[in-house]
Predict the structure of PIN domain-containing protein.
Amino acid sequence: MITAVDTSVIIDILEPDPVYGPMSREALRTCLREGTVVASSIVWAEVATAYGQISQDAVDAMNELSIGYVTIRQDSALTAAQHWFEYRQQGGRRERIVADFLIGAHAVVQCDRLLSRDRGFYRSYFTSLSLIHPAQPSP
């Protein structure tokens, strides 16, 4: 089982968020027991910015959490583009950036499921995606 993890869950653990931190950490542990946990290059970049500068600290933190690094394949990128175009055609505003679509497409195309707190967005635009929310780690 390959679980993609979203930025929100990682930031919950690293900051740590008093509400979601413990739930996110436990959900991550559960996913690691069930297989491999990976984050796309987009998520790694977003996590690195949380440190205020690009540094080895971000890499060390991700490695300590046992989160693997994976690049987004071409078919995932094209899936993201298709979903973003549909979103825009349906009147979606540019507030929702392409990176969110890349994270969802990566999970759909290259993984088995996504661990994220952003259920609404992913359920709306990636209906076939199996989602795990930290408050309810078992699908």
Observations:
- The chain is about 55% helix and 10% strand.
- The radius of gyration is 14 Å.
- The chain has a mean pLDDT of 90.
- The CA atoms of residues 24 and 134 lie 5 Å apart.
